[in-house]
Amino acid sequence: MCGTPSPLWLNGPHPQLEDGVVTRQVCGSTWNDCCGHKSHPIQVKACPGNYYVYEFVRPTFCSAYCAEVNVPHTTTRSNISSGPFYPFGAGDTENDRSDDGISPVISLLQPFRFFGETYNQLYINNNGYLTFDWPWYSYFPYQFPGYGGEDLIAPFWTDIDNRGNGFISYRQYSSGSVLTEATQDINQYFTDLSFSATWVFVATWDRVAYYPYSGTETSFQVVLISDGHFSFVLFNYGTIAPTQRYAGYDTISSTYHFSITGSLQYNITSLTYSSNVNVPGRWVFRTDHGSQAVFYPFGAGDIVNDRSDDGSSSVIYFLHHFIFFGQTYSQIYVNNNGHLTFNGPFHSYTPYQFPGYGEIDLIAPFWIDIDNRGNGVISYRQYTSGSVLTEATQDINQYFPELSFSATWVFVATWDRVAYFPLSGTETSFQVVLISDGHYTFVLMNYGTIAPKVYVQVCTTW
């Protein structure tokens, strides 16, 4: 940059008009220290009209002064540079000012789907990324795909230290103008959807500095948006000071990943002007269409089976009778080993070939020897009103267009990241959905990530 291997930068914030002429230290970066070279201090003055005057002096080593054109920002917390930011500042919860800090666990007001996983919590890591299952303090970005065991959203992963300057804050919304803004944005970028946001999460890094106490000012934001079914991630960028950083997302085992062009290169400040939706400084990604994209909602509000090997639910009484190939049932059992039965629990972990000419009606979305004592959740829930019935109605009318179908009852059983016996640590996710209008009945089998093994079918009495 600037024709020199050691560009000089201002170690400290620019002055305000009322400060007059100020003296600032000048630094040059080395491979392991942002201020490894120190030159003579210079004088700086802020002038009316949003520009600065510098009095340069000869550097103490072979180097050059460098500058980039930035749109100055005000001192109001709710404004940053010229980026396309969602509201922030007043009403936000702030992270502690620290080097490599992190928020406490943040419980989400609505589950968020991220490429096959459904999360009810997250952490904001000061170093420019979000994690879901646990806090993470890494300040050194790596190349995506990382093939790790962590879902990661990284709008600007770098070594941030806001003890000297900058704020990191967050806020959730379930009503109001921010939801209206999110709805308009998503419908603009994804014109094939009829989207109405029900939840928005905004995390903002406002004029933060890099380590060690560089005095630089970098501003960016990540926004999570959901309507309970579709989910999206927005990256918004304001002024970006030069540094090595990474921008994108990565998933467990890197099944899905994305890197913004130029990641891991030093001094890439073009994020302020780049975009994948023709809005300078904004990148938008849809994140619900991963390995569990077709899953009906599950998690919050579900009844959970005991964690056990070869376990089963207690008897579940239907809120609405269900017709299954000539039989009408008012109860069911969710068996841990990947099947449903009606008249009693069924603990078999060895699948057999259908037709089995047996004496039970059996729905087996994924019959296998499951042991979720180590990991995984098996849960179920019934619905007689709300958005799940709307989703079921739309699905059935799409798949069976000759019907005029309106769901009155839905039963959802989900096996979420369950392990095989013996405590293998594998993660397999699938779901079975029963749908009825009192006359027509349907069974849906939805599949996410599947570890190797299995038998899948529907079996009836003979």
Automatic annotation (TrEMBL):
GO biological process: cell-matrix adhesion
Domain called NIDO: residue spans: 155-290, 365-462
Coiled coil: none
Biological classification of the source: Eukaryota, Metazoa, Chordata, Craniata, Vertebrata
Organism (species): Sinocyclocheilus grahami
Keywords for the protein's UniProt record, in alphabetical order: Disulfide bond, Signal
Name this protein carries in UniProt: NIDO domain-containing protein
Pfam family, one: D8C_UMOD
